[in-house]
Amino acid sequence: MLKHLKSVNVRQFSAQVVFVPKHKPPNEEDFHILKDFLDKSKHMLILTGAGISTESGIPDYRSEEVGLYARSNHKPIQYQEFVKYPKVRQRYWARNFIGWERFSAVQPNVTHLAIRELEKAGRVTSIVTQNVDRLHHKAGSQNVIELHGTGYIVKCLKCPYEISREDLQAELLKNNPDMRSSFTMIRPDGDVELSREQVDSFKTPLCPKCEGPLKPDIVFFGDNVPKERVELIRSKVSSSDAVFVLGSSLTVYSSYRIILQAKEEQKKIAILNIGPTRADDIVDIKVSTKCGDILPKLCNLTTKNHNL
Fold first, then answer.
1. Is 52 annotated as a binding residue?
2. Does the annotation place 197 within a ligand binding site?
3. Is position 140 annotated in a ligand binding site?
4. How far apart are CA 182 and CA 185, in angstroms?
5. Which residue of 87, 163, 193, 197 has the fewest C-beta atoms within 10 A of its own C-beta?
6. Measured between alpha carbons, how far is 192 from 182 in angstroms, rounded to an integer?
7. Can you give the residue range of the structural domain that contains 70?
8. Does 3 fall in a domain?
9. CA distance linking residue 255 with residue 259, whole number of Å
10. In terms of Cα–Cα distance, which of 13, 54, 168 is closest to 100?
11. pLDDT category, 11, cuts 50, 70, 90?
12. Taking the CB of residue 97, how many other CB atoms lie within 10 A of it?
């Protein structure tokens, strides 16, 4: 697996220092507890959150000192505001347009690659991710369910039209050829901070079929996860013998209810996350350290034993 690390951009390692919260290194007890969990979990569902993407240079929302809420007054886009107000859509798309080049260039890190190795070894029923960055796909994972959608697909709110975010970027560039910005930080969903003048001059994209508003295929705050996706995840939890949470505080209910279901069905549950989570008091195992510091070694031993 380590040979794949050559594809990880060197700049990401300096980004870790900025966006990964303070944490203790894993100790021997942490390692053995998680190794025992992995050895006994033959068909596990892996649930990932923003805490694994921070190691690739994408900030999360809630981490102490380094999360978006701690570093700025920014509040994430609300679904109803996006649908209702053209100015909100204009602001969103202007910021997303500028941030897209850097956001889409982010590469998976050792945690994504370790998960892929577990999947290749037949140990993973599915990967449910709260992230919209498609880093699991870039790492080569196959069985990925994007709980909150993805920033890589854009859909019309009034008709069935959809377009890839890459193709839309080309259209946005044609319509906004002079739009430029220097920025220091992308946000978890890929947008950046711009001046009011820059936003006001931006030409918002419209559906070429019906001229309706376009929206990324992301479940914004205040919106609901589609029912069919919820049911699919429920079935995946039921068909798994364990749930392994990586890099999520489980603050939002859409992820927390996965743990509640697993608990009700008496599945073994382990959490590997820096800092506390919403489910710490109801799970079997909680290890507080950085995923990338422990998971690759665990993965190598687990998959090696599996192949013997």
1. yes
2. no
3. no
4. 10
5. 197
6. 9
7. 23-307
8. no
9. 7
10. 168
11. very low
12. 25
What residues are annotated to the active site? 148
Q: Compute the 3-state secondary structure of the chain and give helix, strand, coil in percent, each to the nearest 5.
A: 45, 15, 40
- Find out whether 65 is annotated in a ligand binding site: yes
Alpha carbon distance 97, 178 (integer Å): 12
Structural contact between residues 119 and 1, judged by C-beta atoms closer than 8 angstroms: no
Q: Evaluate whether residue 118 is within a structural domain.
A: yes
Q: Does residue 6 lie within any of the structural domains?
A: no
Q: E-assigned strands of the chain?
A: 44-48, 124-129, 144-146, 149-156, 162-164, 214-218, 242-246, 268-272, 285-287
Show Cβ contacts of residue 49 under 8 Å, excluding neighbours closer than 6 positions.
60, 129, 130, 131, 245, 246, 247, 248, 249, 250, 255, 273
Q: CB 120: neighbour CB atoms within 10 A? A: 15
162 bridge partner residues: 155
Residue 245 in 3-state DSSP? strand
Count up the domains in the chain and report the number.
1
pLDDT tens digit sequence for 157-216: 999 999 999 999 999 999 998 876 544 455 555 556 666 788 899 999 999 999 999 999
Is residue 53 annotated as involved in ligand binding? yes
pTM of the model: 0.87
Q: Which residues, 6+ apart, have CB-to-CB distance to 152 below 8 Å? A: 104, 132, 134, 164, 165, 166, 217
Q: Token pair of 264, please?
A: 């009700």
Pairwise CA distance, residues 214 & 108, whole Å: 28
Give the chain's length.
Answer: 308
Q: Say if residue 149 carries a ligand binding annotation.
A: no
Nearest-angstrom CA–CA distance, 13 and 139: 17
Q: What is the pLDDT of residues 38-53, one digit of tens each?
A: 999 999 999 999 999 9
**Backbone phi, psi, residue 218, to 5°:** -120, 140
For 222, phi then psi, to 5°, come to 95, -10
Is residue 121, in this structure, part of any structural domain at all? yes
Give the contacts of 227 (CB within 8 A, at least 6 positions apart). Answer: none
For the record, the structure tokens of 284 come out as 């079997």
